[in-house]
Structure to design on (340 residues):
């Protein structure tokens, strides 16, 4: 989605739900039952997320089944689209989103330190021992919710023998048929590129760029291109669990040293539905929410069907080297290599 599309979609949902305004600083005082009762009265909740649309649809269905009085809607976009929108809503005090799910480690670090964008989380699922709250919650405001683990991916019609390591892709046979994600302005993708260079060779991306890869705005775009046969291979795509289950001609494999990035979720301080925001975050880290969200991803609870790893095992990127200036600098260097 473009930023314009996101804005239009969010405005449409806001109009339908009757939300908006200055929002609230937090949920009602009282027990968790009081928060849920107030959420039912609010009647709706809006989520901004960069998660996979299919998983967000499953989350919506599961949440609306458990809380039929609260209608969940979501707007999906990249962090670089959504984070500025959250900042604008916070600055103006006119919230549209209630809950914000993102992977941008530098943004999370700054926001957690300032406390400017979110309220303390109060849901009981956040205190469950199996959630490991001491390892999973940042500053009482950002809840670890999921993690993307990146895998090798290939079209089985084009590459029936599959792939084993990222180095397998450095092959002239794949010229023009390799898919990569554009990291411009997205801290998590910049971290991915740097990790691959450290792990698989400092010249890895230069050698891959020489094979004229196709560039996509997100890992979702890469997955779709693999499925259609537009590309044959990729060094980094989210595990293609959904696509394989649907019978698409694709397959995937975690490389020997996989990279991943966690999603954290906050209840926004200008949320027009502050109690429903708390209920949604609590649901997202509970078992039902984890099952809905994490097919092909790393889950925050053990024994989640379809999850490929445990999110707590994936470290948050080092934010000291992912400042806006560093991300901008790397993005410019990347463009010279991949978009001359």
């Amino acid at each position: 989605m473009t930023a314009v599309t996101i804005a239009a979609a969010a405005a449409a949902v806001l109009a339908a739900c009757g939300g908006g305004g200055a929002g609230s600083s937090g949920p009602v005082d009282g027990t968790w039952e009081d928060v849920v009762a107030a959420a039912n009265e609010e009647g709706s909740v809006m989520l901004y997320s960069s998660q996979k649309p299919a998983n967000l649809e499953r989350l919506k269905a599961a949440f609306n089944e458990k809380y039929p009085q609260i209608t969940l809607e979501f707007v999906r976009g990249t962090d670089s689209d959504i984070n500025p929108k959250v900042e604008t809503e916070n600055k103006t005090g006119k919230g549209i989103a209630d809950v914000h799910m993102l992977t941008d480690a530098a943004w999370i670090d700054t926001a957690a330190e300032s406390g400017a964008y979110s309220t303390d989380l109060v849901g009981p699922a956040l205190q469950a021992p199996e959630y490991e709250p001491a390892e999973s919650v940042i500053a009482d405001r950002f809840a670890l919710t999921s993690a993307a683990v990146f895998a090798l991916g290939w079209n089985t019609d084009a590459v029936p023998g599959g792939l084993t390591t990222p180095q397998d892709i450095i092959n002239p046979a794949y010229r023009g048929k390799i898919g990569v994600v554009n990291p411009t302005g997205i801290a998590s993708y910049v971290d991915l590129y740097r990790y691959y260079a450290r792990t698989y060779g400092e010249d890895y991306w230069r050698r891959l760029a020489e094979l004229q890869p196709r560039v996509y705005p997100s890992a979702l775009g890469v997955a779709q291109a693999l499925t259609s046969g537009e590309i044959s291979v990729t060094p980094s795509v989210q595990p293609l669990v959904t696509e394989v289950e649907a019978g698409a001609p694709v397959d995937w494999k975690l490389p020997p040293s996989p990279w991943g990035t966690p999603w954290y979720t906050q209840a926004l301080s200008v949320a027009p539905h502050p109690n429903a925001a708390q209920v949604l975050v609590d649901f997202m880290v509970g078992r039902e929410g984890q099952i809905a969200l994490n097919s092909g991803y790393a889950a925050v609870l053990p024994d989640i069907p379809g999850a490929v790893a445990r999110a707590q095992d994936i470290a948050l990127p080092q934010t000291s080297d992912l400042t806006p200036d560093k991300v901008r600098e790397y993005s410019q260097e990347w463009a010279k290599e991949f978009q001359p």
